[in-house]
Amino acid sequence: GNSVTQMEGPVTLSEEAFLTINCTYTATGYPSLFWYVQYPGEGLQLLLKATKADDKGSNKGFEATYRKETTSFHLEKGSVQVSDSAVYFCALSDLYGNKLVFGAGTILRVKS
Amino acid sequence: DTAVSQTPKYLVTQMGNDKSIKCEQNLGHDTMYWYKQDSKKFLKIMFSYNNKELIINETVPNRFSPKSPDKAHLNLHINSLELGDSAVYFCASSPSPWGREASNEQFFGPGTRLTVL
Prior knowledge:
Helix content of chain A: under 10%
Distance between the termini of chain B: 34 Å
Structural class of chain B: mainly beta
Shape of chain A: globular
Largest sheet of chain A: 6 strands, mixed
Helix content of chain B: under 10%
Oligomer: heterodimer
Distance between the termini of chain A: 41 Å
Strand content of chain B: over 45%
Number of helices of chain A: 0
Number of strands of chain B: 11
């Protein structure tokens, strides 16, 4: 079945550091790929998405590129802020029923 | 205006009780979902409804029964609650259940934290 693997956390960075959170997937066909963010005590918000190979999703300084050849969708940000501290989930969308299959989540902590 | 709302936000109850969680979306979407997030933050889909019709049922115990009175509402009823049901339950909605649409983004509610004692 479809699955998503993302790097374990927590990831602890200083403010203005470069962020990479790795995500790889296994799927039949060509799913859409997403990064969702969950701030403490809140629900999930869509951070960015890509619907086909080589698409780059970007939002709030975060970027991720849909790489079909490596089945990856790594999240990057050039300079993190304390306010970026949250749990980040990589997910793919099953083409039938649109169910989201999530990775385990990566906790990001940014220190000032 | 809240796009996807859930009630209650917190629910504490005893083992063996029956409880319900309600979800409403005002986005005009056709499809709604229930997800469960366990204590390790792992998220897994439970159910999906499209226009009041069940389209996904992911090996969830039959103590869990979703009900969709109309396409703006998807409620979750849980019978005979067990300790392992303690989790955060998220409702979500999307315009379409078919993944190829550009509008397949899902919008999540704030979650309901269920604690079974």
